[in-house]
Amino acid sequence: MNWIEINNFGWNAQTIGAVGILVFVGWNVWAMLKQNKLIWSKQKGTSVSIVWFAYFAGYQLIGVVYGFEIKSLTMVINGLSRGFFLIPILIGLWKFKGYNKIEKISTVLIFVAVCTSLIIPWIEWYFFIFSWGVLGTMALQPIEIWRNRDSGVVDIRMIIVYILAGIFWLSYVFTINDLVLMIFNSVSISIMMITLVIWLKFKKKG
Prior knowledge:
Blueprint: H1 4-7, H2 13-42, H3 50-70, H4 73-96, H5 101-117, H6 123-138, H7 140-148, H8 156-176, H9 179-201
Helix pairs in contact: 2-4, 2-8, 3-4, 3-5, 3-6, 6-9, 7-9, 8-9
């Protein structure tokens, strides 16, 4: 595979951005493990948006397919790592919070969407459309905290890491001139900043 990061390896913005993202991949995995531990130790999923976590897992896995298409090793590693470690979080939410009918249907459709990404010929547009779905479902997280008036078991470390990783991703995608990821990361950072503010406003009681 002719990876763009390897072809352009050197003392340049693209290489620095790729290395930074890989560092944040490790940090993201750490944050997801903390989120998973919180759900399982408290045995509840209060204020955690199931649809967002499920959709985000699907997005990461479709990102792996897209990464192969554009020959980005960074995207492939990022998608595999984050997608895999989101699974135990979803299992914990199933066990301790439970999925309602909409959440069950959404999860099945997301699984079908991931499978479909393996066979369609226009993965770039598919990934672009799916990215906007992520932004829509991501907005459900601050809404759920606001509705419950409680931060619940949403781990603030995951929010902060997501924001910082998003900033690094944004700097990186500018070096490879990927419009899809430029738009996605700009909006997602804004949504997670709002989530952080709402989390602090309704910091877990007791």
